[in-house]
């Protein structure tokens, strides 16, 4: 089976398809009971409605064992597949955060996983700030960074949020991510916590792209 092949396969390029298949097999299609999928069915795939089965627990335990000892690149790949297949694994999130703290190349992967999980630990904030401040960070990770930071209680991360929003404006083909990031920013439940800081930044950075976003946020809070 797949697990036997994984144990005997050492070439990364050949291990990845096996790991992808194993993660996809964690779920199966839920039994249809004749009900409608609803007006907005979940089309993320590979299944419309997820259901675990008798081998799900064994698959997850084996993925965790592989993840624990995997080199950084393979660990990042596994975690991406866990997220794509909506497999719950909090320890996987901790693993990618630890790896990203040591390797900047993994910061975008970590940001995407943190944003998807909705769980933000204090140790993750510095790497999210670093990713948000880096113009080379991919657009999806920039949008994720905005979502994470604006919903955190870390007031020192606000400049990084504004930098990410400005960078998304400059990034070609990132319209979808820019719209998502703006939504995360202006509709954040914790935006009010940054009111005074935003007023100060709007004044001190007047005329700059970052100052524009700070001023827009102040107007949003006042309306």
Summarize the SSE layout with pairings.
Blueprint: H1 2-8, H2 12-24, E1 27-29, E2 50-52, H3 56-69, H4 72-84, H5 90-102, H6 107-117, H7 125-133, H8 139-150, H9 158-170, H10 175-186, H11 195-204, H12 209-222
Antiparallel strand pairs: 1-2
What labels describe this entry?
223 residues, mainly alpha, 2 domains, two-stranded antiparallel sheet, 12 helices, 2 strands, 3% strand
In short:
The protein is mainly alpha-helical. It contains twelve helices and two strands.
Question: Can you describe what's shown?
Answer:
The chain has a two-stranded antiparallel sheet. With 223 residues, the chain is an all-alpha fold. The mean pLDDT is 89. The protein has helices spanning 2-8, 12-24, 56-69, 72-84, 90-102, 107-117, 125-133, 139-150, 158-170, 175-186, 195-204, 209-222, and strands at residues 27-29, 50-52. The chain has 2 domains: 1-27 and 55-87; 89-186. It is 63% helix and 3% strand. The protein is built from 12 helices and 2 strands, in the order ααββαααααααααα. The longest helix is centred in the first third of the chain and has 14 residues, at 56-69. It is elongated.
Number of individual domains: 2
Low-confidence segments, ≥5 residues, pLDDT <50?
Answer: none
Distance, first to last CA: 60 Å
Beta-strand percentage range = under 5%
Rg calc: 20 Å
Report the order of strands and helices: HHEEHHHHHHHHHH
The proportion of residues forming helix, as a percent range, comes to 55-70%
| Order of adjacent strands in the largest pleated sheet | 1-2
Shape: elongated
What's the number of extended β-strand segments?
A: 2
Q: Supply the number of helical segments.
A: 12
Taking the sheet with the most strands, its summary is: 2 strands, antiparallel
Structural class: mainly alpha
- What's the assembly state of these chains? single chain
Mean pLDDT, as a whole number? 89
